[in-house]
Design brief:
There is one protein chain. Strand 4 and strand 5 (110-112) form a beta hairpin. The strands form 3 sheets. Strands 9-8-7-6-10 form a 5-stranded antiparallel sheet, with helices on one face. Helix content is 15%, strand content 24%. Mean pLDDT is 77; it is low at 1-65. It is built from 4 helices and 10 strands; from the N terminus they run βββββααααβββββ. It has helices at 118-130, 138-145, 150-158, 165-170; strands at residues 60-61, 85-90, 93-98, 105-107, 110-112, 174-184, 187-195, 203-213, 216-220, 241-242.
């Protein structure tokens, strides 16, 4: 795999040492600051073949006043994965979606309308991380999915480029699950967990904050434009709700 150099912050606090420099192509499409550490490819190593994915039906366009009105459903901190969970696919990558929890509609070409629950917030986060691979630019995603704030304006000025689907797929980076750190109907703090082969635990967690704005979730960023204040973690099985069992 070709080496990639991207700007990063808090690398020491994240506990990611040079000895564990791994492709954490974080898929964070909302600012130019992307935590990406890519390991050199092993001799003779090949990118994994794309496995067939069951694509979710296209979300229905919003109608009328565009309100979502998605039932909240299970609001526990460790909810069960919905029975209708499916896997969206683009450019060799897959991520979970649900017809009942979200996204349930589209607006201006963007998937929207998620349940007002920890599960809905987690699926919203995964969607934001991966929509760049379906033709949306990072700036357009920032404009649409990030809550209005000084940090959003900073991000818009910085611009930025998205992650590489090829490098992400070759490194085996895939959505694995989530941890609900805290939840109220107006704010959800959720750690999105990615499978990251080669790290000590095999998983990497990123703590995001989502806020409920005008009937749907939005990503809350720091005034500096960074997507989160905490550091990446190394959760293990049993500590997070898994998308796949």
């Amino acid at each position: 795999m070709a080496n990639m150099i991207k700007r990063a912050w808090n690398s020491k606090g994240a506990g990611v040492t040079a000895a564990v420099v791994l492709a954490l192509v974080l898929l964070v499409v909302i600012v130019a600051i992307v935590l990406s550490f890519v390991a050199p490819a092993k001799p003779g190593a090949q990118a994994p073949q794309e496995s067939p994915a069951v694509q979710s039906p296209s979300a229905e366009p919003t109608q009328g006043n565009g309100k979502c009105n998605v039932p909240a459903g299970d609001t526990s901190l460790r909810p069960k994965v919905p029975a209708d969970l499916r896997w969206e696919a683009a450019q060799g990558l897959t991520w979970p979606v649900s017809a009942s929890v979200g996204p349930t509609k589209t607006r201006d070409g963007f998937p929207v309308c998620f349940a007002r629950s920890p599960l809905g917030a987690a699926l919203f986060g995964v969607t934001v991380m991966n929509e760049q691979y379906k033709g949306h630019s990072p700036v357009d995603l920032l404009k649409f999915y990030v809550a209005d704030s000084p940090g959003k304006e900073v991000g818009l000025k910085q611009g930025g480029s998205g992650g590489s689907a090829a490098d992400t797929a070759a490194a085996g980076i895939t959505p694995a699950g989530f941890i609900t750190d805290s939840f109220t109907p107006d704010e959800a703090q959720v750690t999105l967990v990615l499978a990251s082969p080669g790290t000590e635990s095999g998983y990497t967690g990123m703590p995001f904050t989502f806020v409920w704005v005008d009937g749907d979730w939005r990503l809350k960023v720091l005034d500096s434009g960074k997507p989160f204040a905490g550091t990446v973690s190394a959760p293990v099985k049993g500590q997070f709700v898994e998308w796949r069992k």
